[in-house]
Amino acid sequence: MKILGLGNALVDVLSKLESDDLLADIGIQKGAMDMISKEQMVAIRKYQQGVETTKTPGGANCNTMRAISLLGGESGFIGKVGDDSLADFYEEAIRSAGAAAYLIKTTGMSGSCTVFISPDGERTMGTYLGPGPTILPDEITDELLKQYDCIHIEGYLIVNDTLVRETIKKAKRLGLKVALDLANYNIVNAYKGLLEELIPQYVDILFANASEAEAFTGLPAQEAVKALEQQVDIALVTLGKEGSLIGSQGHFYHVPAEGGKPVDTTGAGDNFAAGFLYGLSVGATLEQSARIGSMLAGYVIDVVGPQIPADKWEQIKLKVKAILS
Questions:
Q1: Most exposed: 139, 247, 267, 280, by fewest CB within 10 Å?
Q2: Residue whose C-alpha is closest to residue 153's, from 143, 165, 138, 141
Q3: Using CA atoms, how far apart are residues 257 and 172, in angstroms rounded to an integer?
Q4: Distance CA 221, CA 228 (A)
Q5: Which of 2, 7, 309 shows the shortest CA–CA distance to 154?
Q6: 100 - beta bridge partners?
Q7: CA–CA separation, 71 vs 282, rounded Å?
Q8: What is the C-alpha separation between 222 and 237, in angstroms, rounded?
Q9: Sheet with 205-209, side-by-side order of all strands
């Protein structure tokens, strides 16, 4: 099974601050995780020209597609970027992981998530989506979709109702499976009506964490997975340190979490989805697939950021082989 991802194209840029004055100048509250304007992003870029920064490819869906390819699966990513150096960096990062990059380019700045680290270690995040959510349905062609067996859509894109609706319809017409990640409980609350319409009709595989599942169904995770399973072929609810729940065709499973005490949980859900979809792509059982997902999540919570270090992948592949044996 070849898997195509559709999501917001974002570069994560980490900058250390000598003082917190810049945050006040830009208009970001220390410790916040906020969406920021183009004007704020321009001010940030100006600051970053004079300081050392660390860049990593980001965006939940891109993280998932890159991890699938690093496991040895076949994946591609669709996103929209600007015409700046971040776009070039992003494209190279996708391809270096072995995934196909289908980046739609426009003028202006690419989207990015800036992480400021204050002198006391506290993190402040400002996300500028840039052109990410402005993909047009016509920019995702039948010819592209036909190359894949499954499309995995990032829930944050539900703000672009027309894009998600038309892409899902097109994918189903062409015989692809549709996977959707609910992304964030705020997204679920804001677009619940649309999700209630689209999920039972078009979605085959649904990913949610406990808070997202509860926001959608009004039920705690153990009951939510049963309600979700009645709407889709495979429902997955992740529970953090308590593992994950799977519901499919009247059967239910619990898979334990892996890894120690988290250093940073960023990217845990992205990597769980990658492991699970990779498992399905090679014919693994639902439980085996979730075990691969849990293992990847366990690796990523041991480091800061959403990327598993490059030197861990050979070890991971051996563990995957053991799970599948």
A1: 139
A2: 165
A3: 33
A4: 10
A5: 7
A6: 76
A7: 11
A8: 9
A9: 100-105, 75-81, 3-6, 150-154, 177-181, 205-209, 234-238, 244-248, 251-255
3-state secondary structure of 48: helix
Q: List Cα–Cα distances, 64 to 43, 58, 207, 230, 276, in angstroms.
A: 30, 10, 12, 26, 10
pTM across the whole model: 0.91
**CA–CA gap between residue 145 and residue 66 (Å, rounded):** 18
Backbone angles phi, psi at 184, to 5 degrees: -165, 140
Residue with tokens 């689209």: 198
- Per the rule left: phi > 0, alpha: psi between -120 and 50, beta: everything else, 107 is beta
Structure tokens at 77: 């990513």
* The two three-digit tokens of residue 273, written as one number: 């989805």
Residues 191, 22: Cα–Cα separation, whole Å: 34
Overall size of the chain counted in residues: 325
Distances 142 to 33, 160, 169, 274, 278 between C-alpha atoms, Å: 37, 19, 11, 24, 23
Six-digit token string for 101: 């990059």
Give me the tens of pLDDT residue by residue for the chain, a chain 325 residues long: 999 999 999 998 888 888 888 888 888 888 877 888 989 988 888 888 878 888 889 899 999 999 999 999 999 999 999 999 999 999 999 999 999 999 999 999 999 988 888 888 788 888 899 999 999 999 999 999 999 999 999 999 999 999 999 999 999 999 999 999 998 898 999 999 999 999 999 999 999 999 999 999 999 999 999 999 999 999 999 998 999 999 999 999 999 988 878 777 778 899 999 999 999 999 999 999 999 999 999 999 888 778 899 999 999 999 999 999 9
Is 281:2 a contact under the CB 8 Å cutoff? yes
Indicate the pairing of strand 75-81 with strand 3-6: parallel
- 3-class DSSP assignment, residue 85: helix
